[in-house]
Amino acid sequence: MTTPAAPAPQPLPTPAPPVNPETQEFWAATAQGRLLVKQCADCDSLIWYPRAICPQCGSLHTDWLQVSGRGRIYSYSVNYRGEGAYQAAAPFVLAYVELDEGPRVMTNIVEADGADLAVDLPVEVVFHDTGDGAALPRFRPLRS
Amino acid sequence: MSIRGKAYIAGAYEHPERKIPNKSISQVHAEVAVGALADAGLALSDVDAYFCAGDAPGFGPISMADYLGLTKLTYTDSTETGGSSYVAHVGHAAAAIAEGKCRVALITLAGLPRSQPVPRPSASSLAPEAGFEQPFGPTTVSMYALAARRHMHEYGTTSAQLAAIKVAASEHAQHNPHAMLPKPVTVAEVLDSPMISDPLHRLDCCVISDGGGALVVVAPEIAAALPRQTVKVLGHGESPKLTSGGRIDLTHTGAVWSGPRAFEEAGVTPGDVDYASIYDSFTITVLQTIEDLGFCEKGKGGAFVADGALVAPDGRLPFNTDGGGLCNNHPVNRGGMTKVIEAVRQLRGEANAPVQVPDCGIAVVNGNGGSLGTRSAAATLILGREDA
């Protein structure tokens, strides 16, 4: 393999997520360093991405649940060709992390060299402030 | 109700150009529409059903129907499932014909992403998932890379095995005078090409091209009266594959559901298939689809493709004999249309001679739209020679 030569990557951008009444509480929690998922009040399923309906049973009764912020890498890719705001940040790591509680969430792996990553590597959440009342939940290799 | 034998593909046309700097998108829709109708021996005035997807400029099917002068429409459909749309449209057209809603259905695809690049329409910020995916910078390649990595982890699939898929496509493309990349490549060349999003290299990715294609699907009595050999629609299945509330599985496509439905309707099995058109947005798309359609056990796709199984005319499963999206053409980043067109060529015995499958009687076509890294939609067709 040849890896494209590129200038030193810039820090990952922190684009503000679209926030609406259905997701406002999630993003407000991220600004406080808390990671929430939804849980169905009827069938107890955990739900990701957060939404008002349970896609497992169709219930409209769902509650917020704070999770540990720990998990393992389910899959990852070192992307050498970012687009838009991410163009200057390449190479960077796109990943799915499987939370200890179960849901698989799309995210970035940070504070790590791509060559040191592996599926199943334990990770923990870090929050990157968007400057807009929300923070992006990204993950780094577990330190403790 | 089954659509088996209730409709026939009578016309198919692939735009010959791969870079079209001086035409509008609508104009290319018109050229492929007229081309497919001429291939069928029909005219725009015969069309009573029109099908298009998100590449059609304007308002659903209405702008193009107006532009083309389709004044006799009794049926329209603008099902949008990305690259699988046109595979689904054939099934929808066959069902509508079987119900007596129409008799001559026109399906068109066209676009100019190479000559007139526009920013890729990112998922709308109103999409319910937008805040939980877009801020992390996913690109098309990197999301398929996530699927490839997980498949490698679970089943031991290798980059060299994925490369074998590109190699087979390139062997076919050398016989296609219109192919964008007509030069055969080796596994080593694929592995040496620049890494785009690990583990996918540049040569694991399809081309970006201008162009388009069109199909004409007709009722049996019309097929019987036409001079050209037609292709019988035997079966159709489709299925979205979703993220399942946080339970996404990156190792399979929706073809695990669409495939069996199509085979059952057609009354055939994977063992009966002579030729396969499989959407090849990336090499991993083909690998997962081959497993999902039942050509080998789940997880054994790497071994299946590594020994030349996909190379026409003598491989166990000759595939994408036009060179596919990996080498020939990938108009508007939507591969389903050209997949149907090459299957029609094979069943008519009109593929490029060195890659024509002898006595080709049954073909499978699989399209996939959306992203294997998040949510996608598969559509599968089983097609047969006119006398199937």
Descriptive notes:
The complex is a heterodimer of chains A (144) and B (388). Chain A is mainly beta. Chain A contains 1 helix and 8 strands, in the order αββββββββ. In chain A, strand 5 (92-99) and strand 6 form a beta hairpin. Chain A has one domain (24-141). In chain A, the strands form 2 sheets. A 5-stranded antiparallel beta sheet of chain A has the order 6-5-4-7-8. The longest helix of chain A is centred in the N-terminal third of the chain and has 8 residues, at 24-31. The N and C termini of chain A lie far apart (34 Å). Chain B is α/β, with parallel strands linked by helices and 388 residues long. Chain B folds into 2 domains: 8-116 and 210-232, Thiolase/Chalcone synthase (Peroxisomal Thiolase, Chain A, domain 1), CATH 3.40.47.10; 139-206 and 235-385, Peroxisomal Thiolase, Chain A, domain 1, CATH 3.40.47.10. Chain B is built from 13 helices and 11 strands. Chain B has helices at residues 25-40, 62-68, 85-98, 130-133, 140-155, 159-173, 187-192, 220-225, 255-266, 283-292, 301-306, 324-327, 336-348; strands spanning 8-14, 49-51, 75-77, 104-111, 195-197, 200-201, 211-218, 231-241, 275-278, 362-370, 376-385. Chain B has a 9-stranded mixed beta sheet, with helices on both faces. A two-stranded antiparallel ribbon of chain B has the order 5-6. In chain B, a hairpin with a 2-residue loop joins strand 5 (195-197) and strand 6. In chain B, helix 6 packs across helix 10 (283-292). The longest helix of chain B has 16 residues, at 25-40. Chain B is globular, with a radius of gyration of 19 Å. Chain B starts with 7 loop residues before the first strand and ends with a strand. Chains A and B meet through strand 2, strand 4, strand 5 and strand 6 of A and helix 4, helix 5, strand 5 and strand 6 of B.
Strand order of the largest sheet of chain B: 3-2-4-7-1-8-11-10-9
Domains of chain A (count)? 1
**How would you sum up the major sheet of chain B?**
9 strands, mixed
Output the helix-strand order of chain A. HEEEEEEEE
The total of helices of chain A stands at: 1
User: What is the quaternary state of this protein?
Assistant: heterodimer
As a whole number of angstroms, the C-alpha radius of gyration of chain B is 19 Å
Write down the overall geometry of chain A: globular
CATH architecture of the largest domain in chain B: 3-Layer(aba) Sandwich
Helix content of chain B: 25-40%
Q: Would you tell me the overall average pLDDT of chain B?
A: 96
Going by CATH, what is the homologous superfamily of the largest domain in chain B?
A: Thiolase/Chalcone synthase
Low-pLDDT residue intervals, each spanning 5 or more residues of chain B: none
Strand content of chain A: 35-45%
Main beta sheet of chain A:
5 strands, antiparallel
**What integer value in Å does the Rg of chain A equal?**
16 Å
Largest interface: A-B, 56 and 45 residues
Which outline of chain B best applies? globular
Distance between the termini of chain B: 19 Å
